[in-house]
Amino acid sequence: MIVVGAGFAGLYMVHKMRQAGRSVRAFEAGSGVGGTWFWNQYPGARCDIESMEYSYGFSEDLEQDWDWSQRYAPQPEILRYINHVADRFELRRDVQLNTKVLFAHYVETGGRWRVETDDGETWNAAFCVMATGCLSSTNMPDIPGLDSFSGETHHTSRWPHEGVEFIGKRVGIIGTGSSAIQAIPIIAETAERLTVFQRTANFSIPAHNGPLAEETSSAVKKDYQAIRALNRERAAAFGINWGEPGGLTFDSTKEERRQAYEDRWKMGGLGFLAVFEDILMDQKANDEISNFVREKIRGIVDDSDTAELLSPHHVIGCKRPCVDTGYYKTFNRDNVQLVDLSQAPIEKITKSGLVTGGREYEFDCLILATGFDAMTGALHSIDIRGRRGQTLLEKWSAGPLTYLGLGTNGFPNLFTITGPGSPSVLTNMVTSIEQHVNWISDCFDYMEKQGHRTIEASTSAEQAWVGHVNEIADETLYPTCNSWYLGANVPGKPRVFMPHIGFPPYVEKCNEVAAADYEGFNFSAD
Ligand code: NA7
Questions:
Q1: How far is the CA of 180 from the centre of ligand 1 (A)?
Q2: Which of 297, 357, 470, 526 has the highest Cβ tally under 10 A?
């Protein structure tokens, strides 16, 4: 098996194959393992899922031995954890770093994948597994003059590992998604001036991050496997501390609702949106909780015009909400300025800054916090060809077509870990990764027993599946805004809702498919 990528997904795939005594080799473009946690080293980068949950569950010893220092782990700590996993399970000997996969072509005669890497080597394998990540392909904005800027330019998702010094510098940052919202408060502390260019205001919930209490950690460790099992029954496969949602919003009185929002705001994090179960189903319910957040923003930000500009007007939750430490209050600093791009987009980047609304803003350092070509970008950056030389790009020209987010017709023995059509980004990624890797691994065992050499999703199964994923989404408020879940952040990308909403029913479906001899997949023995 060839595995592309050595983040959480690629490493666990390697481990699982090793355990089964199979031959595996992973290729990783970075000079270290860790995937998104290797590349996203911008100031303030941290996970928005709590540390005790955002970790592998496959090894009880690992769970017991590793100690997290904070409620939400910072990026360097997650990277240390992944490196620890790579060392502990001796995964490095099957991981080739600094190696980018350029081509992955299915050779029909013999039924093998031929993979070419940027060091000029060619590899052959029966199976090719894409562990390329959902948020790994940089979304570079197409702004005229981007190359003409004479100062430093950095994209948050390709941050220099030696760090960037901001002392005494005028800094401009484009974007106000999670990456920017984490970076802005920290950059503002040292930069001489920080100008934030905002196209769309975003909802952000306070993290209330802090040291992880020893009692919290040991209480979880006492019952780790049971806690993970309970999490797997939750829609997003995490959030054990959130408690149950309080039913439908308008089944509670006005006072009860207000109290519930306040309590959840104090708790912090993504659990805020789990306050009632219909926040993403009922527009009125959503309006009320959105108003609550806007009120909080007005309470934090001193200048009323700035507060108004920072107040989002889309459905809360239809873009992934951010989790921050001191984001809104950063705009009370004298050295921070917010510039609205919603009425006047960036006209051009110049040698010394950028022009919008007919005015030039000058800075020494430009930060692009413009996000990712999510879920499909990394796959399309590789020349993947299946039967009859068809490229994946052609096959998915109207949007990704997959069965269970795991396979696509015309591309036998190609698996996508947390691919489009699976719950992936709407869940705890590590849990979804483990579920996929285990499923793929069981599928191998089955194929070996049955004497099958290839597996391929049927056209009818994948069409029905994509229809099903979109039907679920259409019953919610998710499709109402221009999110990266829909591909709407990348100009020209087909607008299709990509993740499957709901982890438990998805897992049930995967298990049913496997139990019914992988119904919806076709096998062949040649
Ligand atoms: P996001 O959430 O996609 O945010 C990107 C931001 O950049 C967002 O505010 C965009 O505005 C803005 N953007 C993108 N292109 C432009 C151009 N051309 N001009 C102005 N502004 C632009 O990416 P992040 O890296 O912050 O977070 C991604 C995920 O990582 C996050 O959801 C977490 O799950 C972890 P827009 O909203 O499109 O108007």
A1: 8
A2: 297
Among protein residues, the one whose CA lies closest to atom 29 of ligand 1: 178
| β-bridge partners, 106 | 113
Q: Is 495 within the bounds of a domain?
A: yes
SS3 content of the chain, % helix, strand, coil (to 5): 40, 20, 45
95 within some domain: yes
Distance between Cα 353 and ligand 1 center (Å): 20
Whole-angstrom CA distances from 66 to 61, 220, 228, 244, 478 are 9, 12, 16, 28, 36
Which of 199, 238, 426 should be mutated for ligand 1, with most atoms under 8 A from CB?
199
- The residue whose CA has the least distance to atom 38 of ligand 1 is 489
The Å distance, Cα 485 to ligand 1 centre, comes to 12
Of all atoms in ligand 1, which is nearest to the CA of residue 369? 7
Instruction: List, chain by chain if needed, residues with CB within 6 Å of any ligand 1 atom.
Output: 135, 141, 143, 156, 174-180, 199-200, 320, 341, 346, 369-372, 484, 489
Predicted confidence (pLDDT) per residue in 48-88, tens digit? 999 999 999 999 999 999 999 999 999 999 999 999 999 99
Distance CA 413, CA 32 (A): 27
Cα 136 to ligand 1 centroid, rounded to whole Å = 13
Structure tokens at 302: 């001193």
The dihedral through the CA atoms of 420, 423, 425, 428 has a sign that is negative
Report how far apart, in Å, the C-alpha atoms of 384 and of each of 28, 38, 402 are: 16, 24, 15
What is the pLDDT at residue 515? 98
Q: pLDDT, tens digit, for every residue of 334-364?
A: 999 999 999 999 999 999 999 999 999 999 9
pTM over 0.90: yes
In a domain, 12, yes or no: yes
**Per-residue buried b or exposed e for 165-179, using 16+ beta carbons within 10 Å of the residue's own CB:** ebeebbbbbbbbbbb
Domain residue limits at 459: 2-33+91-138+373-524
- Which region holds residue 469: left if phi is over 0, alpha if psi is between -120 and 50, else beta? alpha
CA–centroid distance, 177 to ligand 1, in Å, is 4
Q: What is the DSSP string of 89-156?
A: TT-GGGEE-S--EEEEEEETTTTEEEEEETTS-EEEES-EEE---SS-SB-----TTGGG--SEEEEG
Q: Whose Cα sits closest to atom 26 in ligand 1?
A: 177
Atom of ligand 1 nearest to the CA of 142: 18
The count of structural domains within the chain is: 1
Q: Is residue 62 part of a domain?
A: no
CATH code of residue 491: 3.50.50.60
Cα-to-centroid distance, 367 and ligand 1 (Å) = 12
CA 137 to ligand 1 centroid distance, Å: 13
Nearest Cα neighbor of 178 from 80, 47, 63 is 47
